Amino acid sequence: MFPVRDDLGEKYYWQCPQCDCFTGTHEGSKKHKPLGSIATREIKQYRMNLHDLIDPLWKSKYMTRKQVYKLISDELGYTYHTGDVSSVEDAIRTREAVYRVAASFDHNKWNEGTIWIS
């Protein structure tokens, strides 16, 4: 599954037999709870792009990860988790919410110019 990541060889994952897309599972989950929905390659790329936008917000130490995700959730009107992004529309809506949340941040600590697939 992960030929360049030996550390992931013993991990559990859920895979679609028709398209070979997959999602990992929560560490230590006895029932191998999926990290999110099984995503197409396109949606997986959007999810990675969202992490590229979101992670610097909490890694800047300006706010905690929990606080950032709470603000994004408040903007969206539901509890946000990147693994639940299941469409291009979800990804774009989330990106716009992240931009609104980031508007109050010190832009020297956050890279708004992150490349985005459109």
Biggest sheet layout:
2 strands, antiparallel
Please state how the strands of the largest beta sheet are arranged side by side.
1-2
Structural class call reads mainly alpha
The low-confidence runs, each spanning 5 or more residues with pLDDT under 50, are 113-118
Tell me the span between the first and last alpha carbons.
28 Å
Percent of residues in beta strands:
5-15%
The share of residues in helices is 25-40%
In short:
By secondary structure, the protein is mainly alpha-helical. It contains three helices and two strands, in the order ββααα.
Notable features of this structure?
118 residues; globular; 3 helices; mainly alpha; 2 domains; 5% strand; two-stranded antiparallel ribbon
Structure characterization notes:
By secondary structure, this protein is mostly helical. The chain folds into 2 domains: 1-38, no CATH class; 41-109. Helices cover 39% and strands 5% of the residues. It contains 3 helices and 2 strands. The chain has a two-stranded antiparallel ribbon with strand order 1-2. Strand 1 and strand 2 (22-24) form a beta hairpin. The radius of gyration is 15 Å and the shape is globular. Residues 113-118 have low confidence and may be disordered.
Sequence-ordered SSE layout with sheet pairings:
Elements: E1 13-15, E2 22-24, H1 41-59, H2 65-76, H3 88-102
Antiparallel strand pairs: 1-2
Helix pairs in contact: 1-2, 1-3, 2-3
